[in-house]
Amino acid sequence: MTQPKITVGILALQGAFMEHKFHLQKAIRHARPGSPLDTTKFEIIEVRTPEQLASADALVIPGGESTAISLIAERTGLLEPLRQFVRVDRKPVWGTCAGLILLSDEASRAKKGGQELIGGLHVRCQRNHFGRQTESFVCNLPLPFIGDDEPPFSAVFIRAPIVEKVLTGADATADVAEGVVRAPKLEVDSYKHAQIEVISSLPPTQGKEAGDIVAVRQGNIFGTSFHPELTPDVRLHGWWLQECVLRRNELRK
User: Is residue 97 among the annotated active site residues?
Assistant: First the structure.
């Protein structure tokens, strides 16, 4: 019997896309025999054009510079196809750091002149919450959703955002505050039928930052503040690939 195939794209306009590619490939190579990763054929591709995006069943938007990524996406004709991919077609997408910012419906501390957002996550993300690059840090982050009794994940935060607010319906119609940018409305926003899940916050060991939201999920969209691709740990990449398999199976029903 032919193995089912999933094509996973990595938005390769700027940022740590090669690191994500390596981690996805490693997670597939080290799949547990008989697991969804082992019984599914994956193709990992770099996405730089609308045609390449159209061939993908799932997408990773890497960390980097969110303003640069959005500008390049706009100039290369990718911005609207990305919105269609995420918010209308509801294909699995994972945004890390800058990717989380781009997938948020709103972002605060925006640069002068603003930036375009893809949207999809019904949250307001605060850019560079922890300060400059010199304020980067690593912490042991509990991620119970990747498996019971799993050890904490060594999460790398570099000029990282946080989710500062889960948005309500009233927020979507309110005036945009100074320093905040908002993703445009679409005629069809299928993701709005799913609820936001806060799936990880900083632990008490992080002092005054404890409780800051650093991982969320809404339907097909997954966002993390940190850089899992900058550690040797591929558990999160493996978990997300399994979620892609589950999503594909749901859409086939």
Answer: yes
Q: Choosing from 229, 237, 243, 244, which is the catalytic residue?
A: 229
Q: Please report the pLDDT score of residue 134 as a whole number.
A: 66
Give yes or no for a contact between 69 and 13, defined as CB atoms under 8 angstroms apart.
Answer: yes
Q: Clarify whether 125 is annotated catalytic.
A: no
Q: Is residue 225 classed exposed, middle or buried when 0-12, 13-18 and 19+ CB atoms within 10 A define those classes? A: buried
Question: 138-174: string of b/e by CB count within 10 Å (b at 16+)?
Answer: ebebebeebeeeeeebebbbbbbbbbbbbbeeebeee
Half-sphere exposure of 93 (CA within 13 A, CB side): 29
Pairwise CA distance, residues 13 & 24, whole Å: 18
Q: Which of 20, 23, 97, 244 is catalytic?
A: 97
Instruction: Give residue 251's pLDDT band: very low, low, confident or very high (50, 70, 90).
Output: low
Model confidence pLDDT, tens digit, residues 174-194: 777 778 899 998 876 655 568
Whole-structure pTM value? 0.92
Q: Is the distance from CB of 47 to CB of 86 less than 8 angstroms?
A: no
Task: Tell me the backbone φ, ψ of residue 137, rounded to 5 degrees.
Answer: -155, 165
d(CA 236, CA 233): 8
Which stretches of the chain are assigned E, i.e. beta strand?
5-11, 41-47, 58-61, 93-96, 104-108, 121-126, 137-141, 153-157, 162-166, 181-182, 196-201, 213-218, 221-224
pLDDT tens digits for range 87-133: 999 999 999 999 999 999 999 987 766 689 999 999 999 987 877 77
- Of 19, 227, 237, 243, catalytic: 227
